[in-house]
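From: lab user (bench 3)
To: helpdesk
Subject: output format question, protein + adenosine-5'-diphosphate

Hello, I'm new to running complex predictions and I'm not sure whether the block I got back is the full result or only part of it. Here's what I submitted:
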Amino acid sequence: MDDLIRKSDKLSMVAQLAAGVAHEIRNPLTAIKGFLQLFQREREFNEQFLELVMEELERVEGIIYEYLTLAKPNHESTFQTLKLQPIVQKVMTLVETQSIMKNVQVDFEFEDVPTIYGSEKQLKQVFLNLLRNAIEAVEENGEITIRLLNHPENQICIQIEDNGCGIPKERIERLGEPFYSTKEKGTGLGLMVCYKIIEHHEGLVTIHSELGRGTKIDVILPEYSRTKQLLQQK
Ligand code: ADP
Ligand code: MG
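Helpdesk reply: Thanks, we reran it on our side. This is the complete output you should expect:
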């Protein structure tokens, strides 16, 4: 019986995800088709069109990556010993244009923390999603602080704090549900992807938020040998 329920749960999840992919990808594809039709008609090379087409294609790529991670959390996950500090720094560089354009200050405070065992590509995705959400949540001149901290029991905490719009209490528990988004162009998958990846790393994500004041998200990861041990037991 249990098995049956689990199977039907899985099936509806797959159906929901498939419908989601179709829906999400249709918009950027329609836009790309429109640009190309215009290009075909005008026969004129336009730098701006090209840029827009590229942007929409990147959007499609991003959406597919998110869905792949959800459907198969271990895809592209080569686990190795990792230092978190350079990973966070790389992700900060990735969002630099976005934060500069909005005049958002992003600070990084770090303690000397142990190495972890994980997938660089996946963890980058987690920090990228969280940092993007933070940038999207703050007003112009907003402030974001990323902290790398030692956490009890040989764990490490990566904390991302913003002074943005915050999340109403009743909505916090809905976070991580697929397709829950308050943004016009949001997929509502970013946080779900983060939860999945961190779970895959034997870690934990917690969210504290106050409406109108800001949000603090803690990603807790075990240090290297603990994750390795936990994964080997499976
Ligand atoms: P998306 O960013 O595509 O909307 P996410 O799963 O990343 O999807 O986030 C889901 C929703 O959670 C967002 O639409 C937003 O309402 C809320 N949210 C996430 N992070 C923050 C944050 N730092 N501050 C305020 N709201 C947030
Ligand atoms: Mg997001």
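A quick orientation on your result: The CA atoms of residues 35 and 82 lie 42 Å apart. Let us know if anything else is unclear.
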